[in-house]
Design a protein that fits this description.
Distance between the termini: 27 Å
Helix content: 40-55%
Structural class: alpha/beta
CATH superfamily of the largest domain: Glycogen Phosphorylase B
Largest sheet: 9 strands, mixed
Number of helices: 19
Radius of gyration: 24 Å
CATH architecture of the largest domain: 3-Layer(aba) Sandwich
Length: 553
Amino acid sequence: MLFPDFIFETSWEVCNKVGGIYTVLSTRSKTLHEKLKDNLIFLGPDCWGENGSPYFIEDKTLYTLWQQKAKDEGLRIKVGRWDIPSHPIAILVAYDHLANVKNELFAQLWNEYQVDSLHAYGDYDDSALFSLAVSKVVESFYHFHLSTDHKIVFHANEWQTGFAALLLQQTLPQIASVFTTHATCIGRSIAGNNKPLYDFLWAYNGDQMAHELNMESKHSIEKQTAHYVDCFTTVSDITAKECAELLDKPADVVLPNGFEDSFVPKGGSFTKHRSAARKCLLTVANALLGSQLSDDTLIVSTSGRYEFRNKGIDVFIDAMHRLNDDPILQKNVVAFIEVPAWVGSPRQDLINRLQSGQHFDTPLEQPYLTHWLNNMNEDNILNKFRSLHLTNNYNNKVNIIFVPCYLTGTDGIFNMAYYDLVIGNDLCVYPSYYEPWGYTPLEAVAFKVPCITTDLAGFGLWANKEKGSYSTIEDGVQVVHRTDYNNDEVADAIKYTITQYAAMDSKQVNKCRTSAHKLSKKALWSKFIKHYNIAYDHALQKANKRFTNIGKI
């Protein structure tokens, strides 16, 4: 089996924390770096300018001679290290100066690969120019430091970087290309536009749907990249089916997303961190609600990207509404929705209460929101609250709180990072409708927090596969059957599971928590990296054949 001497990997989320791909790359880096050392190089966008990325440490002593050569060639780069535990080399690439060659680039992509850029809009142009710049950086580095004696893989993530993989295939055909779609753009669009995806997946034509949903250019680059690269990959079996139907290209290899748990506290430190997280969550809830929730309050949360339907946020709210009316529920529940929205500012009235250190017996105005939004009247979550009259009344057994900001430790209310807070949950709920993998449930179980997810999430299907049947809360993950149309059944299943969990004694709870942690150990990168090795081998074998055939011409 062939393994690369060098890996260049690019994503819009290298040193740029936007979503789940940041976690995928940054946690996987440790496992790859142990083997490749500084022959693992990440390339990301220099979108911070003079302010500098908070996730990047520039080092002008790295590849000093090449840095000067690259700048002489007109490349605008910063070389340093990604500020993550493995500290891999990262190159931030500027691309704005290439805008004048955009039309020539689009013509080249059409002529060589039939990529349709005619209907481009939004972030398409930026993605194409960033990819062009990345391809030029890799070319420059290759000609300065490498040769055909090296086995090299270029790994592009998502359609935004597919351009670079195609361009390099023309200029450096000896480099093996891997392309990973973490979710097809047309599949996500179908689901996001409230169209039934799964029952009719077999009947959808990807090109036709791209035209209908105004996604032609993004779909085109994703589809053509999938067809032309040396190894096309995706992250789960459910997304592999989606690729086969909508991109007309089955995945060559499925690359499930693993996890690096070195930062999960151990032993007494774990207990300390969990206690601190619970105290913070309950303190904020009490200040907002004007209550005195007891320490045995069940803390439940959902989190992730703000995709109201796709992430199942709508179903989560429905479940909490039904749970509040459930006579069987004996414990108080506080449910947090931790989803970044169009946040304005942290609530000053809430800050004042938190800083006072006092207990209050009256709620604040709108006691279901920790930060003001810029679109208070148009926000889907708030409108759902209003439609169900979820106003956190004094006599509610279930209170639901919207946290519309990134939990980075500087939000003004909690001032704790997401990982420092998730450990304080009793249950996490992710009732996803469209979820190619599902990092949030994997993160939850790594912190010994049992979770509820669905069989439309890649992680949920994997959990079922590990058990050999539907996983239950006693296994650490409750996997709920979900279809295009059974929202009510899913909400009821969530309600039932939470009620069941709330009634458990400490021994039963500890069993669930232990099972969750054991399951997370099966998803470590040390277990999943084998799939990447297969992909690298596949790509290198194909690139070798292509380069050999070129030499014969």
